[in-house]
Amino acid sequence: MLKCPKCGLEVDVSFIKHTCSKCGEPLLLEVDFEKIAERDIESLIPGELKKVTLGEGRTPLIDYRRFLLKLEFLNPTGSFKDRGAALTASRALIAGWKTVIEDSSGNAGIATAAYSARAGVKVKVYAPADAPAGKLRLIRAFGAELKTVRTRDEAHKAALNDQSGVYVGHVVEPLFIEGMKDIALELVNSKKRFEAIVAPVASGTLFLGLYKGFKELVKLGVIDEIPTLIPVEACGYTKLSKYLKSISLTCGENERSILADALRLTIVPRLHQIAEIAREVSPYTLTVGDETIGEALRELYSIGLPVEPSSAAVYAAAKYVAKEFSGNVVVPLTGSGLKYVPMPNELLDRYLF
Amino acid sequence: MLKCPKCGLEVDVSFIKHTCSKCGEPLLLEVDFEKIAERDIESLIPGELKKVTLGEGRTPLIDYRRFLLKLEFLNPTGSFKDRGAALTASRALIAGWKTVIEDSSGNAGIATAAYSARAGVKVKVYAPADAPAGKLRLIRAFGAELKTVRTRDEAHKAALNDQSGVYVGHVVEPLFIEGMKDIALELVNSKKRFEAIVAPVASGTLFLGLYKGFKELVKLGVIDEIPTLIPVEACGYTKLSKYLKSISLTCGENERSILADALRLTIVPRLHQIAEIAREVSPYTLTVGDETIGEALRELYSIGLPVEPSSAAVYAAAKYVAKEFSGNVVVPLTGSGLKYVPMPNELLDRYLF
Q1: Distances (CA, A) of B36 to A352, B43, B58, B218
Q2: What is the CATH number of the domain that holds B154?
């Protein structure tokens, strides 16, 4: 059952929209706690929603100094988006949709293309033309119809206006959040101790999913409280600075990040859901600039981890956070650097090659 | 303990060479079965050899028609070589080596570079200049010293002659085989039923590792017999056709595969170990050509799996095998396609983009 977090309206998971018919708020999946046995973590994502898989999830969680690195870039298409795309494709099958529409800075488009291919559903992806060439090529490689527009925000608007299929944009799709939630369940299942989690915020699905997961785990009696969640944004693309304290990790004057291509979104349908949560569980939001990202990227490669620049932004943020907290800090490394390396890129080359 | 499979000489794991001092045969790790409890699969790879990790292994095994697809391309640096590189780097730490030397068509060099970086060991990698640009760039990105030569075979010779560090080439390194063996242990641990396994053979480490794993599992009483193992080679690079029946899956006249870049090795130090095993457990060797590889690659992308061309060769072989066996066929998809996509490549484009 999908539920509006604002007015409480409930609809079936095969409902064709992602926002509430009454008040326009993006919907969320409502867990039926009466059907779940005590401490049965697995059932927080109902099995009947898992119809399509490419082996996503159960990613490694490795120790490095005081960090717990969650290697989300080892999902099938190279990013954490695969978890959400798997459940979204499942919803398309349940509802019988023939064509779906997505907008993306790259990774979510790749994931949606791959899982739609697996499900036998046609897909059209809108993306900014200046997304990394490797990402755009992958979207096409999976057989999706790729439409490039000028910016990430324009991609969102164009996808919303496309009437040739059902819009399943991860920025609003309720089941996408459930895929992200699974990361919280895995972190708790690992039995490893941690005090804080840093999470990249573009459309905020990971941030929302982690919060929803921890909140449900509290309700289920598995954990006592929701851990500290710290949003990470890119210079020039912060949405949260008007809601909570914002700390800049070396943003240049008027800097708009180029390296953090996965974080360059400003139209965020779930923004006030994110802001409300951030006020509850975040001491501040961290905004990271390209120089800091480049250095962090070099460091991650120097310990053998081929991640994408946007993930290095999150690691850089975690290093800041680790100075303020005494416990372990969880760092989701969300995207693979393998999509980048073969492409000569002056800026990237300066740090890496 | 390392042991010569030919003359029986035993040496410690910190022994600086990989071949027998008496007869020149590449060594293998000898499992001490007296120290292992009944059916204790995990102990077949001694814990004290696992000193370096980036979260390799435990890759997904997904069902697709009658295939069990083992997604080895989801290892940290995008290939199954990570399993071997992890144990090899551990041996370097145990033995106290400061600099190691590797030769590779790409993936093993990437893996060795990443795990050496993690272990804090210097590394020099020899590779053919015509390896995919993305692979060569990754080797450098992890901080390795990259030396390019004309062919894969020349890379092997040059690495052997380099006296500036300890040669740990995966083509002979005993612990590399142990990493490959782990795949056999995971397949049996999965409890899924299968009748045959196809395995790419370049230096043959996967083929040897799978066999060694299944043989030890038989000895441990976990399984009754070694499953059928079918080698897969690339047109123009077959080493096994003189030892057993060879079936060509559309090799053109004098074709030398370009797409299967990971299979282009002809100098194989462990060749007679491989041939001996193949005569025991393989009905034939399959040799695959670029047209067949390209079609198989397109098919794998069409179900959402971004693998490299050499892995598509193995899938093409599995389709042939599935017609001859009634049970499930295991297909290790060994390498990631993400290392390729951003690079325009006329031949690859014809099939994929």
Answers
A1: 45, 6, 22, 14
A2: 3.40.50.1100
